[in-house]
């Protein structure tokens, strides 16, 4: 299925207008960045890169798309010809997937003709605004969980295809697994699951339901113990599965209290290695509030897949330079009230002191001098139209997850605070 | 592409466990509903129905899916055989798309074997939780705009496929058009667009950029006038396009002030019929705040596609009844703390007095008596596995839009208040 019509109409009409005098073909540089972080956030997490590379390969205007555009009179015949032949032939550099970003960080730098770069605007923003919103929320939850594993269970709380992206973004940011099967198949993410209350209700009694589940999945499974009464549910779970029961799941009630009671009950029943997993509308704050409770793992849904209060990362895509008539690069930017942009091609580095990040240094026009300027942040993502394979597929996801962990380790400690504050490091234009 | 793996792993493992003793095949009824509305909302808007019917037809476990499930040992061979033959053969009734809903409204009633009904849980919730969140936000924006047209422009602020669903949901709730081309092609939604700041920056001067745009799209187009200085932008726009200029777009600044200045300037230049459209991070409150300003139309992005503070509608999918051993229907519900559900098959009607809605009456087990009980809310959506065509495609969307308008007209006037309050009508279980 083509991704080419996942595009705002004005991208094509701008091309249509600018093809008439040839200006659409002028070499140009666009940057994708966030003007600011969501209110109070200390850092953002880049996610979506590997997905964009796949979507880019399927960005084709086929006969059906061209016929529809013609019928709707979106563009003229000359533009239809141009779209028919469209292949992105430019270069995209950008932050590694999993990398952290700050206000102004040039997450993608897209270089090509004006037409071939502008036509990617809507799609690139859709991908990065959603995926990075989820990854940014996920990273805070991972910090709050202090090493305890988290599972992504939010598929039912976001669009059915966004659900795959959410599972992928959460995994990159340090979640252990997802409930979403397609995320497992498409991106190699470990999948997991327990059972729903409907299963217990179908059997009518917890004893029968647990027996059926243990029969199918073995005593190492996770039994849902709160359909009726939690204390009775726990007693029945251990009775049926024995002390080798893998885990119990609790999805209701005042978790801080309930979890302690359940731990004591499990221990008293000899099920000392049975774990407790909780799933009741958690966000990073609820996770942190359970840090002293005997919780072994968390399942997170709604708050994760909706960005925990910031469901879109606020990224924008702006023309920052184009070749002028004399063949030189002309930096450009708008001066609109409250929305001005910094023109010019940018080369960002993360400035470090003793291995700790101290600034996001964005060198405008001139590259940074010397290797001690900081860790360079741009890598090649697409070279002359060809996506770099290392960033794609399951191995790309695994690499992004590793890179995220390394980038987080550079942050100053106060960056991990969940309370509202300023970005963890300042952005400096040099 | 199959939709079958857009599913939580536990749906399949529950089926696996319950197939072993045949209980998975027991006739069952599931209901999809919201326990409550998002905080302070007066009503919700159902959207997603037509999309679910399409996804249901593509819910097939093909050789690739089965091979992956086998390799991952998600379920056993008997379950794989069952999945291979899976076709939904049950019946789905539900609220018409575009209908309003309230706490407890049974938006979908899915009847089939436990297995064939439970396996749709994740997908159905993904669709309704996202689409209804957008439609519910959109309806408030339409009220706030008091008859002035609204365009959906949020594709870049949500996942690239959710963007299509958002455009569709907004149109059902009364938006006039969308910027998203695929929404136009797939669902017959009118598409529109103006131009981006990048277009002006490419040309370097507003005069050249406007000349190119008017050359391509005619003077009836909408010119973006705030790349540098709005007053100058407006003067240039009228100079280039003449007084027949269709519209100017303003995307920055204090809109209530700026819009009045621009209107006066346009009028002074003789462009008295040139419209003003605004697009600067609007939500229903910002739209309402502009009600006395000379705005002609609105473009809405982020707030719309992220549900304006409620990005997931909070719908759940619960087993409410199944056939018991004696062949009678057994109502079932969980009693978990704070999350109890009402068992039994439900038949909802909207109680009306003099044409005004006064209650959401949900008849449990026994049907409502007499035609004066209220307007019946359930219609057939899928009959013995076959989706009802009237709810599908572009004509389904058009019908949903019409139905939404009629359902809104029944609401008491205070339901249109944007301030926080209780649901506009009470839900009564009878």
TrEMBL record, chains A, B:
Top-rank taxon, per record: Bacteria
Coiled coil start-end: none
Pathway info: Cofactor biosynthesis; NAD(+) biosynthesis; nicotinate D-ribonucleotide from nicotinate: step 1/1
Protein EC: 6.3.4.21
Pfam families: NAPRTase_N
GO molecular function, one term: glycosyltransferase activity
SUPFAM superfamilies: Nicotinate/Quinolinate PRTase C-terminal domain-like, Nicotinate/Quinolinate PRTase N-terminal domain-like
Keywords of the record: Glycosyltransferase, Ligase, Phosphoprotein, Pyridine nucleotide biosynthesis, Transferase
Gene3D superfamilies, alphabetized: Aldolase class I, nicotinate phosphoribosyltransferase
Reactions the enzyme catalyzes: 5-phospho-alpha-D-ribose 1-diphosphate + nicotinate + ATP + H2O = nicotinate beta-D-ribonucleotide + ADP + phosphate + diphosphate
Record-annotated Nicotinate phosphoribosyltransferase N-terminal domain positions: 5-128
UniProt entry tagged with the keyword Phosphoprotein: yes
Enzyme class: ligase
Post-translational events: Transiently phosphorylated on a His residue during the reaction cycle. Phosphorylation strongly increases the affinity for substrates and increases the rate of nicotinate D-ribonucleotide production. Dephosphorylation regenerates the low-affinity form of the enzyme, leading to product release.
Biological role: Catalyzes the first step in the biosynthesis of NAD from nicotinic acid, the ATP-dependent synthesis of beta-nicotinate D-ribonucleotide from nicotinate and 5-phospho-D-ribose 1-phosphate.
Family in the record: Belongs to the NAPRTase family.
This protein's name: Nicotinate phosphoribosyltransferase
UniProt organism field: Lysinimonas soli
